[in-house]
UniProtKB/TrEMBL annotation:
It holds the Pfam family URO-D. InterPro entries: UROD/MetE-like_sf, Uroporphyrinogen_deCO2ase_HemE, Uroporphyrinogen_deCOase. Residues 22-31, 142-158 form the Uroporphyrinogen decarboxylase (URO-D) domain. It comes from Terasakiispira papahanaumokuakeensis. GO terms for biological process: protoporphyrinogen IX biosynthetic process from glutamate. This is Uroporphyrinogen decarboxylase. Pathway: Porphyrin-containing compound metabolism; protoporphyrin-IX biosynthesis; coproporphyrinogen-III from 5-aminolevulinate: step 4/4.
Amino acid sequence: MTVLKNDRFLRALARQPVDVTPVWMMRQAGRYLPEYRATREQAGSFMDLCRNAELACEVTLQPLERFDLDAAILFSDILTVPDAMGLGLYFETGEGPKFRKTVRTEAEVQALPELSVEQDLDYVMRAVSTIRRELNGRVPLIGFSGSPWTLATYMVEGGSSREFSHIKSMLYGQPDTLHQLLDKLAHAVTDYLNAQIRAGAQAVQIFDSWGGALSTPAYMEFSLRYMEQILHGLIREHEGRQVPVILFTKGGGQWLEAMASTGADALGLDWTTEMQEARARVGHRVALQGNFDPSALFATPAGIRAEAGRILDSFGMGSGHVFNLGHGINQHVPPEHAKALIDAVHELSARYHD
Ligand code: CP3
C-alpha cells in the first residue's frame, strides 16, 4: 500500500477530520493553462493526447505544479467509451465532440459490441498506472466515467445537444430500446471503472452532466437507476483502502436524497443548490463536493476569495466537504485566478476544522 503524503481528499470523502478543506477543480488540466496548450500541440489531436500515456500523465500533473491541489484527476474524456464501441469520436474546432456514427434504432443498439475494457481502452489504464507512478503518493488519483445516460445522449444525438430531441424521442417513444442501450453502457462503465481502480485510481467520479435535463420520474428511471447498478458492481476496497465513489448530476439538486440512497460516498453539487441546504438534507449520509460557480473565476482575486469564503461558511464546521467548482473550468480563466481560489480555500477553511 502506497503511503499518501496528502490524504485530505480521501479523509473528507470518508467524513473523517481534516486540517483544512481539500480542493480540486473539474477540468483542472485543460486549455486555460498555456503549458497544456503546448503539450496538446505536440501530441496532435485531443485523442492523440489521451492515447499517449506519457503526455496524458504530463498534462495531469501540470495543474499540480502550479496550484496546491489535493487530488489529481486522470486526463482522458468520458467519450472514450462510445469511441471504443466503434462510433468514431472526433472534435471539430469550436463545435465540441462529434461521432461519425449515431445509435438510434434497436438494431443499432444490438449491434454495439461488448467491450473488453482492458484491451479496448488499454491506453487509459496505461495512463492511470503511469500517473500513479509519477505522483508517487503526493495526492490521490481520481478516475472517472460518464454516466450511462450522459454517454447515451452523445451517442444518440451524435454530439453535444441543447434539446436532446433524438434521445428524448427514444425515451418517450421506444423506452425499451433506450433501456437496452443504458444497460449495455452500465456494464461497460462498471468494467471500465473497475479496470481504472485496479490500475491505480484511488477514488472515482461518475459525471452525469446531462441528468438535469430530465423530469423527476425520467431521471429515476433512465439515469439514477443505472448509476446505482454501476455502484453495486464497483470494487469498493483496493490496496487496503476504501475507494470512494462521487456521483455528480449537473442540475440534480432536487434529487439529492435519492442520489444518497444509491450507496455513493459523495455527491457533487453545482452552484444552484446551497451547500447548507444540501448538508441539512443529506450530509449525515454522504460527503458533498462543490459548488463554486466556474464563472465566478472571472471576478477579481478578492472577489474569488470572498465567494470561496461564502461557500465554506455555507457548508459550516467539520469534515465532509470537498471544495470544487460546480462544473468544469472555462478555457478563458486566467491561471492566477485559479490559484487565488485554491489558496483561499486552504487559508479560509482552517477555522472550520478543529
Ligand atoms: O477534469 C480533468 O482535468 C480531467 C479531464 C477531463 C476532460 N473531459 C478533458 C477534456 C474530464 C473529466 C472530462 C469529462 C467530460 N468530457 C465531460 C463530463 C464533465 C462535464 O464537463 O460535464 C463531458 C460532457 C465531456 C465531453 C467533452 N469532451 C466536451 C463537451 C469537450 C469540450 C469540447 C470543446 O471544444 O470545448 C471535450 C473535450 C475535452 N475534454 C477537452 C479537455 C481538456 C478540451 C479538448 C482540447 O484540448 O481541445
